[in-house]
Amino acid sequence: MAIANVLLVDDEVGFVETITRRLTKRDLDIVAAYNGEEALEQLKKHSSIEIVILDVKMPGMDGIETLGAIKKDHPLVEVIMLTGHATVESAIEGMKMGAYDYLMKPCDMDILMSKVKEAAAKTRKHEEKIIEARMKEISTRRAY
Amino acid sequence: MDQNQQIAKAKYKALFRNRMLTIIIVSFTPMILISSIILYQFYTSYHEKVYAHLGTIVKKHKRNIDSFLNEKLGNIRFIARTFSFEELSDESFLQDRLVTLQQEFNHVFVDIGVINEQGTQVSYAGPFKLGKALYSEADWFQKAMESEYVISDVFFGLRGLPHFIIAVRENHNGRDWILRSTIDFVAFNNLVENIRIGETGFAFILNREGKFQTKTLLDILPEKIPCMDFIKNGRKISKEGICITEGVDDSGEKYIYVGAFLKGGDWLLMFRQRSSDAFSDFRSAVSVTLAIILLGGLGIISMAFILTKMTVKRISQVEQKKRMMNEQIIETGKLASVGELAAGIAHEINNPVAIMVEEAGWIEDLLEEEEFKEGENLGEFKRALNQIRAQGHRCKEITHKLLSFARKTDSRVKDLNINNVIDELVTLSEQRAKYSKVIMETSLQDNLPNIKASETELQQVFLNLINNAIDAMEKEGGTISIKSRLDGKDVVIDLADNGPGIPQANLLRIFDPFFTTKPVGKGTGLGLSICYGIIKKMGGEISVESNVGTGTTFHVYMPLPGDEEDQD
Questions:
Q1: For A105, nearest residue in chain B (alpha carbons)
Q2: What is the pTM of this model?
């Protein structure tokens, strides 16, 4: 089983391809998207996606807008922002909007991996808690 | 640039000339106009005054002479009418009358004689032995026989001395006889000789033929005197019988002539004075006026010169400032667009660099697989990949710094660690410093408290100071050392170079706007004044110390946040 299901969103095709290869090699399940709209479609298609790695600066729907849309429809999905220097402010803005963390391009693979793992752990913990709550609810009903 | 300077120089020269000419013309025109009008009025009235004065004198003397002649004529007529022809024919009786007359009139009467109608002298009393002289041919005798009396012109006659005669005709038993007396010429002459005005004014009398009836002081010829016109044509005679005219003699000297007829128009009393003498007061007044005008003119010209020079200097300074400001604006605009361009490029480069680094990382990942582990060049691959990653990160550093610097000036105040700002700037400037053989050293005190300032503005200040230091040491090379320390309630940054130093005279002015010692076009003279403004705005202080030959040190004092609040 993969460590985590990840959606990678960046308009730079070369970057997406390379990172996909590297992350796949590190046992992650990667789905790629090259703009905001595509990312939202992929999320709808693949409900197993737990983490989104999102570039801030993209043509059309930019990273911040995409983040807003993701958090609205998929609140349990964690988002890691990826940014160049000029958009640090937007990354911080993203953090305020509920992004898990942000990383600067080019980023160190180990750091990226650890962030993904942390985020995945957090998502799973969330999911576990939800399942636990539901189990409780069911067992309570049965007791009656 | 040289050509531009020459054009500017020519422009200011023309401006100077035009301004000066305008001031001079505007000042001189009314002065000359008013002076000329006043002088002309003065000249006219002074002329009138002089003429009136001379006219009055001549009129007075004309009356004197006329009354003298009338009085003498009256005396002779009185004797002729009082005494009979027989009585007067007696020489001893006649002698008595002469003595009486002489006693009465101070020897004005020289002699007296009785002449019958044939012109023979019947009796005579006087100093000359004239006896029975015959006057039938004499001009005066003939005139006397025609009219009741005659006053003759001056003539020499039988006695050979200048004299004139007063003769009165009377009738005795149907026969005419004449009582004649000679008037002392000296006594008469004195009447005229006494008229003296100024240095050259004197009077004389002429008869109808233009012959002198008195002695003249100068050798003047009656023909040269325009008064002959009065006699011949009776021109220019005023109401009072006075005529004034001007004439020029052979030597070109101008004279004023004042004339009045005497003796019922037979004689002409003439007064002559040199024009320059009569108008000497006027001339001195004119000289004084001219001297004042000359001095005033000199004053106007020198004031015009000084004022114009000052104005043109001021204009050139203002234009210079304007030009520099324009240059600065253009420079700032250029910098801003270069900054934007750099930011764009930096951002665009960042993506390919990221991909390159990731690709290198991918190769690295692949090298971990078993099949490559035994490769003989594995070590070399890893070294090369490390190098790619390291250089990729270096690229990232460079673009990040460029981006952070090129971002639009952000004057927002935030908490800053001054050491970070300095470190960043040193990294940015090191390359340029290396080309100028300048070494940069830092000695930054650890754990400095944060200050409140705008990062970009602070960057601008230190970059400016660093650039100035590098510029100063460009030729010889040297060291820039930057120290940060805590001094009381201030964070102090000392930026020292060991360049050529700043002369004392310039040291006082280096924070003045537009003061620069850099060549034209290189520096605007605004850098340090802007630094000064920024530091002051932040509540800090900037000072400089410098010794020629040893170097220059700038001290920047930035207050700690608590302090600033106190100040606020």
A1: B354
A2: 0.48
What is the spatial distance between Cα B353 and Cα B286, in angstroms, rounded to a whole number? Answer: 97
Q: Where are the domains of chain B?
A: 323-408, 410-567
Sequence-ordered alpha helix ranges (H) in B368-377: 370-373
Alpha helices by DSSP H, B407-454: 418-435
pLDDT per residue as tens digits for the range B94-121: 999 999 988 988 888 989 999 988 889 9
How buried is residue B11: exposed, middle or buried, by Cβ count under 10 Å (0-12/13-18/19+)? middle
Looking at the domain B410-567, which fold is it? Heat Shock Protein 90 (3.30.565)
pLDDT at B457 over 60: yes
Interface check for B342 against chain A (CB to CB < 8 A): the answer is no
Q: If one looks up domain B323-408 in CATH, what number appears?
A: 1.10.287
Residues counted in chain A: 144
Higher pLDDT, A142 or A117: A117
Query: What's the token pair of residue B51?
Result: 């003429």
ipTM comes to 0.82
Q: d(Cα B340, Cα B451) in Å, to the nearest integer?
A: 28
- Tell me which chain A residues have a C-beta less than 8 angstroms from the C-beta of B400: 85
Total CB pairs under 8 A between chain A and B: 54
CATH of domain A4-143: 3.40.50.2300
Does A86 contact B359 at a Cβ distance shorter than 8 Å?
Answer: no
Query: How many whole angstroms separate alpha carbon B463 and alpha carbon B472?
Result: 14
Phi, psi of B545 (to 5 degrees): -135, 145
> Concatenated DSSP letters for B466-532?
HHHHHHHTTTT-EEEEEEEEEETTEEEEEEEE-SS---HHHHTTTTSTT---SPTTT--S-HHHHHH
* Residues in Cβ contact with B541 at an 8 Å cutoff, skipping those fewer than 6 apart: B535, B555, B556, B557
**Rounded to an integer, what distance in angstroms lies between the CA atom of residue B277 and that of residue B256?**
10
Mean pLDDT of B252-280: 84
